[in-house]
Design brief:
Helix 7 packs antiparallel against helix 8 and helix 11 packs antiparallel against helix 12. The chain is built from 21 helices and no strands. It folds into 2 domains: 78 residues, no CATH class; 279 residues, Up-down Bundle (Methane Monooxygenase Hydroxylase, Chain G, domain 1). By secondary structure, the protein is an all-alpha fold. The C terminus is likely disordered.
Amino acid sequence: MTTAAVAIRAWLVGPRHSDNFPYAVVTDELHRVGKHFLDGELVAALQQTRTELGSVPGSYASSQLLRAWLDVMLDKPDGRYCYHTYLALPLLPQPGQSDNGLTPDTAAALRCRDRLVAALIADTVRFASTGGEATTATLTGKRIRLGTRVLTPVLRRLGLTDDLGHDVDPHEVWQRVQSALDADERQAVALSMLPVSTVHDEHLFIRVLQAWECTFALVAVNLSAVVNELSQQAVAAAARGLDAATAVLRESAPLFSLLATMRPESFAEFRVYTDGASAIQSDSYKLVESLCRRPELARLHSIAFAAVPGVLQRVEQGQPTVQSQLASLPPTGGVDAQLTPAMEAFAEAIRAWRRTHYSLAVRMLGDQPGTGSTPGTPYLQQVRDIPVFTGGGRAA
């Protein structure tokens, strides 16, 4: 029996409490072997913990965290393995989670996103500095530089630095970011690194995808605010909201450069254990797409939206979009003069993201199917050409 299984068994018969579950010893074991290769006795101990969770004392927050973490850990045995559980998204605070249908709070969403991205990428840079199989000093240095490019504007907004400079100490940056996080955020970051393998580059892959997910969640909040502004005919405010969404996408572009340092052979080594998890299941990306304009029927009825039932439901229930709200405004030159440039810039930022995503997928996958048995690069090539907005001489 593994040390982790023994620790859980001891917790189950001892003075158990949701606040003192032995997370650290279990995640250490997972990092040693990979989630796909967890020992059967450890899995059984985790399943027993979940079964008995109702009788475990603890605060509401710690009990909810333990339940969510167990569900993520047991996704493969449960037959629920998917993109969300692979990236442990239920464990990470996402922008807009606390809006509850109220007017979108874009300032709070930006701060939430910045704190999370700072933690994710500082951890990525720290881990990159530890080396790994077939990792050269040149590659490590490149990853640190690219991670620093992502971190610099984020840390500046958070008041954690003016400029990281050229001689970056990854561990010092990580300590600086970690000290600014609260206990819940530190725990969420620690518990959300659950790779399926021991391939060094998978850490980079997971963290960059997590960073993109929370970035698109922020963009969705921005677009929801734009829709709200347009419903009140606040055209100038709507244009500023689109500009803010464009800025965060452009600022995040180095995430792709960082991800591109992953070796295709490393990706091929761990992706065989990720069947069932595909970025096509990304709710945040599809929400952004559907808030721009209502997707065509063919796309709504395709695998793309079948993979995100929650977003599909919002669309089918008549979710207002930037395009639909724009159509309800008086057709004046003033509206076009303020909104059209903002829409064109945002559309180009989305298209640039799609092009880069496609190019990176071609490099990593070639003509192989995507993870989760999705169509892979041919699908991404089709998505690349979908208009962001349509009609009226506005951004396509």
